[in-house]
Amino acid sequence: MLWIGTSFKMTKTRGEAAEYAARLRHGVGRSGIPGVQPFVIPSATAIAEVGAVLGIESPVLVGAQNAHWADSGAWTGEISVLQAADAGARLVEIGHSERREHFGETDATVALKVRATLRHGLIPLVCVGEGADVFARGGSVDHVLAQVAAALDGITDTSSVLVAYEPVWAIGEHGREPRPEEIEGVHDALRREWGDRVAAVLYGGSVNPSNAKALLEVPGVGGLFVGRAAWDISGFLAILSTAAEAAAV
């Protein structure tokens, strides 16, 4: 199964998200895409809206971009995993590099959020990745393996966990599109260390319809986590089509 998903980040009003979801529902169909698990992660304000448009039995999973580790309490501005689930989320994105850089997310808080997500039966999507400095000195594998180990430390059953390798140098508006050989080493290490213990290891970072096929051919890549190339529904559907072809091989 190839997991193909996108996060809206801080884009789209509820109306825009609903329109996107309606076109996604039509593009994926009721029965889904054989061999492909699509997912979409709207802003918190649009989780319920997107879930309602897709429908309760949709083959597309809806996620939350973040959730707190506590079930409730005096955490102003946060939402809990329970609240995310109540809004219709079935997975939670955890530890994105933007959260780590701008909001003080650490390996310790990532681990707390993974446990909370699993405790409530949702799927953790754990984001890991190295900065340009680490990549330049050849430390990518050790850095990423350490992040995953910290996030999943002490968890006996990690079979529902998704890991998204997103090198920081490749993501965002100014990210550099990677050559497949530049991500092969990390994906090979993740496959050897975690391949039989997690649901899938995804790649994310400057993914687009033109390079999706090549990225899916990298050994150990079990799907794609797409950024701005999927914010327009036509881009997301194009990548889903590429994944369908790859899954059918």
The helix/strand order is EHEHEHEHHEHHEHEHEH
Number of helices: 10
Unreliable residue stretches: none
* CATH structural architecture: Alpha-Beta Barrel
- Quick one: how many beta strands? 8
Radius of gyration: 17 Å
Shape: globular
CATH topology: TIM Barrel
Largest sheet: 8 strands, parallel
Number of domains: 1
Q: Strand-residue fraction?
A: 15-25%
Describe the secondary structure blueprint for this structure.
Blueprint lengths: L1 E6 L6 H15 L7 E6 L5 H8 L6 E4 L16 H7 L3 E4 L2 H6 L4 H13 L3 E6 L3 H5 L3 H12 L10 E4 L14 H15 L5 E4 L8 H5 L6 E4 L6 H16 L1
Parallel strand pairs: 1-2, 1-8, 2-3, 3-4, 4-5, 5-6, 6-7
Plain-language structure description:
- With 249 residues, the chain is α/β, with parallel strands linked by helices.
- The chain has a single domain (2-248), classed as Aldolase class I (TIM Barrel, Alpha-Beta Barrel).
- The chain contains ten helices and eight strands.
- An eight-stranded parallel β-sheet has the order 7-6-5-4-3-2-1-8.
- Helix 1 (14-28) runs parallel beside helix 2 (47-54).
- The longest helix has 16 residues, at 233-248.
- The mean pLDDT is 97.
- It catalyses: D-glyceraldehyde 3-phosphate = dihydroxyacetone phosphate.
- Keywords: Cytoplasm, Gluconeogenesis, Glycolysis, Isomerase.
- InterPro entries: Aldolase_TIM, TIM_sf, Triosephosphate_isomerase.
- It comes from Streptomyces himalayensis subsp. aureolus.
- GO terms for molecular function: triose-phosphate isomerase activity.
